Amino acid sequence: MITKYFSAYPDKLYEYIQASYICYMLQMNGFEAVLAGGCVRDMLNNVKFNDIDIATNATPNQVCHSLSIFETKKVGRAFGVVLVRAGGYEYEIATFRKDIGKSDGRHPANVEFCSMEEDAKRRDFTINAVFYDPVNKKHYDFVNGIADIKSHTLRFVGNAKERLEEDYLRALRYVRFRCKGYFVCKDELDIVNNSLSIVKEKISEERIILELKKIFAIGSFSSVYEFIFENGFTYFFPIFFPDVEALKGVEQHHFYHPEGDAYVHTILVWNHLNMKNRSFLCQIAGLFHDTGKAYCSKMENGRIISHGHEKESTKIVKEWMREYKFSNDDIEYVVGIVSNHMKFHQAGMSDATLRKLMDKPFFDDLIYHIEADIACGSNNFDVFNEYKERIEKLKEKQLPDKLFTGKDLIQLGMKPSEKFGTIIKEMFDAQLNGEFNSKEEAIQYFKSNVSKMNKKVLHKI
After folding, report:
1. pTM beyond 0.90, yes or no
2. What is the rounded distance in angstroms from the CA atom of residue 117 to the CA atom of residue 69?
């Protein structure tokens, strides 16, 4: 197994060799030491692992003593975890443990060090409860995990309800593995569905978002079926994305959206971005870009219209991201995509507006989003392709220096104020649109267009 695996993933070989040496050193000091969790599962699945975790019956103090040639740090004293840096890699080494006492849905009341078998039986899923000894090349499987890995079956260790009550975040982990294509049994699926509402009550927003990021990073088409058809996770969107759920039954103009209602379109857009491995924030924008349609769609002259839905969608996604404690920068990034996505569906955007968008940090993801939006709707790329040609031409031209500045306003008799920024912005837009090409022409243009500009801004001139 090992030779075949590392012929497929040679970049992971030295990380594995270093982990094997750590296990060897612990074993030479009289302890059990094995690889644990996801890395064992991924190697059996012939999937590239992210990192390697090690489990042992050595206590944290004994781990540090046995591995004194390496840099060690106790990072989870309550749970017996030591961080080891060796050979340029980091490994978490955890002492075998079992949970003691009633859980609050996030943490056990207490933990107790235990045997390898007892440690396996407190883990979440059977596929994550298999150990591998890289020194003696031996698997330890106390829960039939290897069979479940080979059959791609997702199953809780022991009683599903008890495992969820220990840590309700496991319900989201279950969603993640199901979206990867693992088979599930209906009884456990029903228990998970019923537990999703408790996740929001018991688990912090930060932990929920970390798990959602992993779900959104899967890149598997199987996820689309879980959220469109009724045999999947029927409570996932109502609980975590209620504004997306509200799009169910919101009809759209068939000419532009032959695929179905706004909910189906949204899930298809999200899945398109997911399959293309777009960023988490880009996928969030994909989920929320049409949420405003649930509140502003109407029938007019026999046609379904949703004018201004992007403005409503912007308010909705901003509120949702604040609830889940995203940073201001992340909120601004997603809002930029959502608020601007309709501009590329209609011809007529000025070069000035296009240039300004091109300078935004979210611009590349905005383009990815538009491609997904069109591909999952009308599939008519004519207008968008024209914009792409213009974008390429504009990339060849550097943004010019401003021909009209605050100094010019002062020389024209204005006193410095917060209004300067708005005026200079309007003048720069005019410059980018080719209205003038020199300082003299800029001043003349300003004088000639004072009456056409925003009177509220210019009332003191």
Report:
1. no
2. 30
* 135, 22: one domain: yes
Domain holding 225, by residue range, is 152-240
Q: Which of 240, 261, 293 is the last residue of a domain?
A: 240
pLDDT tens-digit readout, 332-354: 999 999 999 999 999 999 988 99
Q: Tell me the residue length of the chain.
A: 461
188-226 pLDDT per residue, tens? 988 998 899 899 899 999 999 999 999 898 876 666 666
Q: How far is CA 46 from CA 9, 13, 16, 132, 416, in A?
A: 9, 14, 14, 15, 66
Token output for 295: 């509140």
Same domain, 133 and 20: yes
pLDDT at 429 over 90: no
The tally of CA atoms less than 13 A away on the side-chain side of residue 60 is 16
| 234: enclosing H helix or E strand | none
Closest CA to 228 of 213, 198, 255, 248: 248
Task: Provide the b/e sequence for 351-362 (b: ≥16 CB within 10 Å).
Answer: ebebbbbbeeeb
Q: Could you give the C-alpha distances from 256 to 181, 296, 377, 384, in angstroms and in order?
A: 31, 17, 6, 14
Yes or no: say if 393 and 406 are a contact pair by the CB < 8 Å rule: no
Which domain CATH number covers 6? 3.30.460.10
